[in-house]
Specification:
The chain is an all-beta fold and about 400 residues long. The protein contains 1 helix and 28 strands. Strands 22-23-20-26-27-17-28 form a 7-stranded mixed β-sheet, with no helix packed on it. Strands 3-15-12-6-9-8 form a 6-stranded mixed β-sheet. The protein has a 5-stranded antiparallel β-sheet with strand order 13-10-5-2-14, with no helix packed on it. A hairpin with a 5-residue loop joins strand 22 and strand 23 (about 270-275). The protein is elongated.
Length: about 400
């Protein structure tokens, strides 16, 4: 169900109460032995019905609703329930409950930014009962939304908010759970967490830019290749691998003396395979890859081709990129009169150092348009979200962003 809904501003609050459990990165909910021990110690055990369907067909600016059903399969009542929500960065919470604390978590290490919430629900969930939220969790899709996800986890008897309900502040309504009278369907599958994929109708324009350099025989020049996501959406992979993969052909008459980070020799001669650093790329972001090229022999208009190739994800292509014009580029060394353009800059800055050593002479693999195309625009997500919120007595977000 979708409807128009305004964007709400988040509260900038750091969640650092109690003993922390660091969640694993990589878009999957990390194991939380402290949380598991808490459930086992109380005698109550809360699990989700795995019946939530992916949400598709929504657009940036729309609203989406996520509901869930949680069952106490333990042998004791669950009291002082704490609900943990972790949404991907293309989402925003449409409603702000007084018994929830909200946080916009910045990108940290290889993980993108997230929108998190922790809700203190002072209710008792008896053994065998099934509860649902009194109203679905409302989400707004931002303009950057594309492949989004909401992860939900719940724990009983956790003293995250020692001050009680209302810790979130304000006169907003209280998030509550209501008992469901209808019995569970036969064969219902349960799990300790729930993840809902939300796919928006949006695009992300991945682009490559090359460069043109000049130099005499015996000199070394810097040739720059740039990867950029021109948006409007950010994009992430469905596996924990780079979202963008491209080959860089080394021009004839040159030899590689410096290899940029996230590039390595490919199987083809005189070709390097480069990747994005992470399994996601924010909109309006870019990264430069600078190759040191020694000119062993001046070859007029020596050209190396740069092109996206099949990556390690579900379709292998980039189904969200509808502009294929900028999916290829060139490195041109010593252009002749009327030589081809590269979409880059010109120059001949000297480069020292001696790593690598591939001699130029061939172009890279096929461009993206030559790969097996699926024409599909389905959800690109297969795993859950890295949720750095689980704790037996609290919650924390304590990760580092790897320098680029």
């Amino acid at each position: 169900m979708t409807s128009a809904s305004p964007t709400h501003r988040s509260r900038g609050l750091t969640l650092t109460t109690g003993a922390a459990v660091t969640a694993a990165l990589g878009w999957s909910l990390g194991s939380a032995p402290g949380a598991a021990a808490e459930q086992g110690a109380s005698g109550a055990e809360l699990v989700f019905e795995q019946t939530a369907e992916p949400i598709e067909g929504v657009e940036p600016g729309d609203a989406a609703e996520v509901s869930f059903a949680v069952k106490n399969t333990g042998d004791a009542p669950a009291t002082r329930v704490v609900l943990y929500l972790s949404g991907s960065q293309g989402l925003a919470y449409a409603d702000r409950y007084s018994n929830c604390v909200y946080e916009d978590a910045p990108a940290q290490d290889e993980g993108p930014a997230q929108v998190n919430a922790v809700c203190d629900i002072e209710q008792t969930l008896e053994p065998g009962t099934v509860h649902e939220p009194a109203e679905p969790i409302g989400l707004d899709l931002k303009e950057r939304a594309l492949y989004e996800r909401l992860d939900v986890h719940i724990l009983p008897d956790v003293g995250t908010f020692p001050d009680g309900t209302g810790h979130g502040g304000g006169a907003d309504p209280v998030l509550t759970l209501v008992e469901r009278s209808a019995p569970e369907a036969p064969g219902t599958v349960h799990g300790p967490e729930l993840g809902v994929d939300i796919t928006a109708r949006n695009t992300a324009d991945f682009a490559l830019t090359g460069s043109t350099v000049t130099g005499a025989a015996g000199t070394t020049v810097n040739a720059k290749v740039t990867f950029a996501n021109k948006g409007p959406a950010w994009a992430r992979n469905d596996v924990y691998g780079p979202i963008g993969v491209f080959d860089v052909g080394i021009p004839k008459g040159t030899r590689v003396t410096k290899v940029p980070e996230f590039c390595e020799p490919a199987g083809a001669a005189a070709t390097y395979r480069c990747t994005t650093p992470y399994n996601y790329a924010d909109e309006d972001s870019e990264r430069a890859y600078v190759f040191g090229l020694r000119i062993d022999k001046v070859v007029p208009n020596a050209t190396g081709r740069v092109a996206f190739v099949k990556g390690d994800h579900r379709w292998g292509t980039l189904p969200f990129d509808k502009n294929r014009v900028n999916n290829t580029a060139k490195i041109v060394v010593n252009p002749s009169a009327g030589g081809g353009t590269t979409g880059g800059t010109t120059g001949g800055a000297a480069s020292t150092g001696s790593t690598g050593g591939t001699t130029g002479g061939s172009a890279p693999g096929p461009q993206l348009g030559e790969l097996a195309a699926t024409g599909a625009d389905g959800p690109l997500l297969a795993g859950g979200t890295a949720l750095a919120l689980l704790a037996a007595g609290g919650v924390t977000v304590a990760l580092r962003r790897r320098p680029s």
